[in-house]
Amino acid sequence: MNILVTGGAGYIGSITADYLVKNGHKVVIFDRNFQENPRDLLNKKDLEKVFQSNKFDGVIHFAANALAGESMKNPAKYFENNIIGGLNLLEAMREYNVNNIVFSSTCAIYGYPKTLPVSERSPFAPVSVYGESKLMFEKVLDWYDNIFGIKHIALRYFNAAGASLDGLLGESHDPETHIIPLCVNVALGKAKKFTIFGDDYNTTDGTCVRDYIHVLDLASAHLLALEYLLKHNASNEFNLGTGKGYSNKEIIDMVKKVTGVNFEVEMGPRRAGDPDKIYADNTKIKKVLGWQPKYSDLKIIIETSYSFLKK
Questions:
Q1: For residue 204, how far is the Cα from the chain centroid?
Q2: What would the CATH number be for the domain defined by 2-158+212-241?
Q3: Which pLDDT tens digit goes with each residue over 267-279?
């Protein structure tokens, strides 16, 4: 296949693009973070150029702003980039007769679910502009299917983590907000200590529990999703997680074990709005797409993250 990957220079996008190439597909990356050749979804001329010069079998759409906290301080940035940018992409697809898109969505559309595990039938209740913008674009995709026949699969991620097995591609944000790279960076001496925000949650060890999925398992799901669209010509949505959770303390203990560094950990106050635990019901994606997580054992996740961040 010839696949357009928006946001393909980012963390998940770059690893998925690499995975697609290694599986024999041709990839064109569209990303505003290229230094020499930036492309922005908010610029319709950029989109026109890429669609004029390529014939695509499908699109994998990662490009988005994705910090929930920032979205509450700058909602316009998130509504503009995540919705208007996506609309521009859909209009270009419509004009150039590209009718398949895999959308990088999020479990943030469910907010703080009252029942676990979280299934695709769980009620939508986003608590951030980021989550709301993703849910809104899922609704846009539904209308473009109904009106224009552009088929989509929305993959609702839980917590992406880890790095490529060779340690060459991985997660390094500025600012970094995710627990695993933050912990690993403390072990590497890039920060003095790690702070746990609250140890009085209703969990086994008192710290928050989250569903961590290795980025390579995310990548494989995107290829399966695009193959499904081309075979069945039918839209769908899937929760993309492992179906189990790890606590903050379990993350810290494993980072210490993998790195061999007994770094300092301090206890801080709870952060507003953090639920006790969230993890996915992944029954549907296993059944319909035949997807199975291969690398989402916590030790593998942290070993690959450590390998990348050391470099």
A1: 27
A2: 3.40.50.720
A3: 999 887 788 999 9
